Amino acid sequence: MSEEPKKIIVDDDWKQQAQKEKEKLQKESPAEARHIPPADFVVLVNSFAMQAMIMMGVIANPMTGEAEKDLDAARHYIDLLTMLEGKTKGNLNQEEADVLSLTLHDLRMAFVQVSKK
């Protein structure tokens, strides 16, 4: 018995839908197409915090899937946030100030725990 090759059937509805999606993606900016969050203070704080957590080995490195420890690099990210806190004192809204303060507290506590191991 010989098997006949499977035929791919492409209907017009599928083609129209694919064309609409393609046009929509072309209209969007590259940031929207990749779902990049808006540039704001909380996103910056969270970005540095995420890097610190990765360097402490608390979160696996998304590039490798492995937990790694580089406490000097983790301390650098915590120091960057500390410097940012000093430079922006009195210029943040309450939510931004709270996020920065709580994030620094959590990172410092995590750093102490990881350093003891």
Short overview:
With 117 residues, the protein is an all-alpha fold.
Based on the model shown, name its key terms.
single chain, 117 residues, mainly alpha
Number of helices in the DSSP assignment? 5
If you average the pLDDT, what whole number results? 85
Query: What is the CA-atom radius of gyration, in angstroms?
Result: 23 Å
Largest β sheet strand count, sense and barrel closure: none
Can you describe what's shown?
With 117 residues, this protein is mostly helical. It is built from five helices and no strands. α3 packs antiparallel against α4, α3 packs parallel to α5 and α4 runs antiparallel to α5. The protein is flat and about 65 Å long.
Topology:
Layout: H1 12-27, H2 30-33, H3 41-55, H4 71-88, H5 94-116
